[in-house]
Amino acid sequence: MKKYALSLAASLAGAACAAFLLWRTSQSRPRLPREAPPAVTTTAPAPTTPRTDPDAFSRILLTQLDRLLTRADARAREAVLTFKDDAAYRRFLERAKKSGLTILGSLDALRSVRVRYDNLSSLRTDLLANADDFSGVAANSLLTIPGPPAKDDRAAINAVPFGNRALEFLGVDPSAATRATWGQGVTIAVLDTGIAPDRTFGDYRVRTLDIGLGTSAGTGSDDGHGTAVASVAAGAAADAPGVAPAAGLLSIRVTDATGASDLFTIAQAILAATDAGARVINISLGGYATNATLSAAIGYAQDHGAVIVAAAGNDQAAQLSWPAADSRVISVGAVDAAEQQVTFSNSGPQLQITAPGYGVQTAWLNGQRATVDGTSISAPLVSGAIAAVLSQNPSLTPQQAWATLQQTTDDAGAPGDDPDYGHGILNVGWAMNVNNPARVDTAVSSHYYDAANQQMDFVVQNRSALAITGLSLAIDAAGTGSTQLIPPLAAGATYVVKLPIDPTQLAAAGSMKFVTQLVNPTGVTDAVPANNRRSSILTAPTK
């Protein structure tokens, strides 16, 4: 496969420096998640003879039961059962103990039960004898905090960390007095390791809800994760700032002593958060399996007006982890301070948006500050942004607030939606000023090499609330200058300037440098002039 390297030196707020990104002729090849520790399995004896011949569904289910329930990435000797109606659900609750099954948890609203079995034959027997009661049987698969990939399969980039400047990158002035009310009246539920006390949250903004795993953040090596997530969503301290510093936080611990959670626990927490009034639910955990119970819980939250935001995963895979992979969930990937997709960030057609996720300063345990990488930090920035938009526009629903964020993303990478950036990069400054006619912001949003058509795409974006006429783009292509007039751009519109590239000339030169400067019409003051200039270097393909 031929690969073209495109190095980027963009004039970005907080990151005016050289960086590198790789153009790929196809999506990153799928990469399976790292293997989980082997689950304990049992050898079940043949099932007892059923009273009636099982239907086709039951026969298929029984033949696949071992495979379904003995996954390496699932809770050992556990199953998640769902039932066709309330009567079937109640019948199971009454007979479970006699059937040799221990109920570990139940969700009445979803007619779902988490059970433990000492021997698989107990469950097999109950399924055969009561086949008409069941609508689904699944393993209780694990969800974990996204970790770094085991191996870097993507080309290396010079990733640029954010430090304590992620808000500035998102177009937010952390010192602005108006930001103090962002998120007011909105509750963000953080389904994670728990939130530790920290001055960035003040004394009264964090509530806790116990679903059986306690409310303490613990002292383990991963137990600061929930505090970090909460701080970038809603922190108020200058050294651990969040997008929505006035938002309420609902802390629900969903991880056990090992730092792992599971599908049933996440579903349980989604229901609890929804019922407790959370309008935004952040899940910075993931796994590579799902089941009907999690799907129903996502539907429950949606039906009750809440939105779920989840981390895409850190396995540099061409697929998203669950629950981010669900199309009803707002999935978030990670970029660095030079607007590059970070190599670990999962990609895929389900990806909806990207946000800072490399070297971000956050709160941690015991009042400490930590620098954190991962899509698990990108997701709460989006959660905080939804809360901020809601507080500014109380008449909006959370889904409408999310629609505002979609409409105001920075178009990165290939023009339009793409599997690496989704709709684009979160731009909170634009979202909070989407209806402000006094604010003008035009930008060179991206340099992208389209190898299929042998051309450079220079993406120009109007991030203003009004149409702009009279823009021009000055282009320096390997020392050759030209000027391209930009047609009138409506508010939020994008225009792509295409420059043909001679592959023979590129091969002979080895690389080509491009510098673009967007020129606004006379008399127009740009609120963010730094994003009017962008430069990149296209390197000849390697064989």
Task: Give a structural overview.
With 543 residues, the chain is α+β, with helices and mostly antiparallel strands. The chain has three domains: 3-30 and 437-542, Immunoglobulins (Immunoglobulin-like, Sandwich), CATH 2.60.40; 56-140, Alpha-Beta Plaits (2-Layer Sandwich); 160-428, Peptidase S8/S53 domain (Rossmann fold), CATH 3.40.50.200. Helix content is 21%, strand content 27%. It contains twelve helices and 26 strands. It has helices at 56-63, 65-69, 86-95, 120-129, 166-169, 225-234, 263-275, 292-303, 375-392, 398-407, 428-432, 503-509, and strands at 3-10, 17-23, 78-83, 101-107, 112-117, 134-138, 142-144, 187-192, 206-209, 236-237, 240-241, 248-253, 260-262, 280-283, 307-311, 330-335, 353-356, 360-363, 369-372, 442-450, 455-462, 472-477, 480-485, 494-500, 511-519, 533-542. It has a seven-stranded parallel beta sheet with strand order 9-12-8-14-15-16-17, sandwiched between helices. Strand 10 and strand 11 (240-241) form a beta hairpin. Helix 6 (225-234) runs parallel beside helix 9 and helix 7 packs parallel to helix 8. Mean pLDDT is 89; it is low at 9-52.
